[in-house]
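Course exercise 7: structure representation. Students receive a sequence record and must write out the corresponding structure in token form. The form below is the worked example handed out in class, using R3H domain-containing protein (290 residues). Read each field label carefully; the graders check that inputs and outputs are placed in the correct fields and that the protein name is recorded exactly as given.

STUDENT ID: A-19
EXERCISE PROTEIN: R3H domain-containing protein
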Amino acid sequence: MGFLRTPDENIAPEEHQIHIAVLEPSSSSDEEDEVVLPQPAHVPRARYHRRRLGQAFHQAMLQAYQDGVNGPSNIRRISGIYMCRNYRVGRKRSRRLDNSAFLQSLGKQGEDDMYEDIVQQEPTVFERLLCDEKAMEIWESFTSQPEEEQHTFLTGQVTLENAKQRATKERCDQNSLNKSKPSVGNKRFKKICPHVQEFLNSENMPKTTLLDLEPRLIEFFQSEPEGHYVSDPLNNDDRKVIHGLAQYLDLCSQSFNSQISYDQRCTKVTNPKSTFVTPTVLLSQFLGIS
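STUDENT ANSWER:
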């Protein structure tokens, strides 16, 4: 190995010399002998990111917590607010949610207290029985009787109650029928022509003609629903009556000249339907004619 020196420098003895060697890179055989140690796998840390959860979710979790039901494994409760993993909530939002949950709990508690107060104020059947002296006397006399007499008394009471209910129902049905009669009459009376309505409500209307023609038409079409009724020659007022009566009974009427005399006119009444139903309220009853 060589070294550099200046002309003025003296060469030191060999034992005092320092030798510097340069290491050469190892061969390929040494590289194969090296062992690479495995590195531990990188495990990401669990982070709680903000995630918007609906109000329905918080309500459901709050109800589940109040009922004693455990929530999912990824749910944790912080200051009364339910959060799931990857969720972060700030102080202001947490405070608002705490306040809303507290107010909701107060509202439910107030409703329950009000309901309890209402229930407590209403006396029970036994309390009313104990407070009423006459009722207690009747109860004591009833309990002192034999079992057969008690059964007979209870059966009679049930029968009496059924009779009262049946009578009340019949009375209600009769009242509803009486109330429905004017409505049925009004509905049928509106089918008549307006000028005929005015004539039927006037004092000039011949009542005897109405009382005579009404049972004739009803009897004829009950026996022959598809028949044709032809009246005798009638004057102008009588023809108005038969036209109004036919319209009230859902029939069709038409006047024509008589074959006997050209000056006289008759009326033909037909049924456009295959059946004839007598109304519950007749025209004479509706007009108050008897």
